[in-house]
Amino acid sequence: MLHPEIEMLDREGILRIQRRRLATLGERLAKNDAWRDHFNSVGMQPEDLSAPDGLENAPFLEKADLRGHYPFPFLTAPMEEVERFVATSGTTGLPVLFGMTQQDFGTLLPNQVARLLAAAGVKRASRSYQGYGYGLWIGGPAPDQGFKALDCTNFPIGPGRGELAARWLRDHRYDVASMSPLWLMSLVQAARAQGINPKTDWHLKTAILGGQSVSAEFRAQLESEMPAGFISHNIYGTTEAGGPILAISTPYTHADDELHLLNEDTVLTEILDPVTLKPVSEGEVGEIVVTTLSKQASPVVRWRTRDLVRLSPRPYDCPSGRRGMRKIGRIIGRSDDMIKFKGVIVFPSQIEDVITGTNGVVREAWQIYIDKERMTIGTLTVAVEAVAAQGRAADQICNDIRREVRARLGMNIVVECHPEGTLPRYEAKAVRVLHRAEP
User: Nearest-CA neighbor of 210 among 92, 301, 116, 95?
Assistant: First the structure.
């Protein structure tokens, strides 16, 4: 446990920190014209965050709000104090830039990421293969900072160069890897194609996997390819929150397919019903809404991530002794990615659960196509690949997936089965749902 003085606090101890830092945040935001205008839109002032009901009455922050203040939305530090900028992926429009001061990037971020890494079992002085991308994306620099704080020897390779990376995993004897789960599975295949057996030739003990949530079945398949004792952990965060700093699975939550929100002292996390925008109860599904309490530049207040999770039925019960910060399930999907197909609501993760449980399919390669007929959805097509070495007939695979989707979700879909290597591979965030043009 990296920060026991915080991680061992009870819930009231965490809430006291949040209340104090909310009041300080309100004082800072009051000095910024854009933030004052934002709060005035609901008849509030930023200083009202110090009130007991201040946050629950504060306005939500949406992507349109950020883009309306282009190019540096809600920046609360002078430009000369901004050490660097990071940006959203821009998959749904123009990327949004967020500033980070030296305190944000050099102190806050390392502490946040290192806490998560340590909770997942990363040991000091480990050899780390950092496989997330760089540039304006925070995905690569954030684990770099966390590994540095844990005195790890870091190999910042990033994604790509799969054949070489597969050899280096053997030759450099990396203990830990951070990357997307799909890229790690691709490296397993690249290794086997060169006669390298990851189970016996690699030395990985831990993988920190993010960029997309994967099913428990996919995770189990990935772990079965790895050395004895290997365990993979899902890490979660957003650029708006400051990076992959919100939650991670640990050896205590792994079996339950849950993550622990371990930075609630610096990022206040609400889990709200996406319709009523009221807090959900234990065991219910809600949208993650974040408020950054300690970030100097580009803080957010009630940022709607659109990511849906189930609050753990026992959010404060953890054998690790961490009782003040909550546990959540893996990301179910996004409220704006929810597919309503002929009256049935379905999330891509539900389709993935079927695919990864089907014999003979390539588990990391699948796609959902939404086909439209004029103004209404006509067909939902799921495209998969058949594992060449297994030689299972494509029509059998298609029938299995159609039957299981109908049994689980009560909907009829079209299934296409392609040769291995046909569909796109994603080194970082996977785009699973594609809309095809109307005829």
Answer: 116
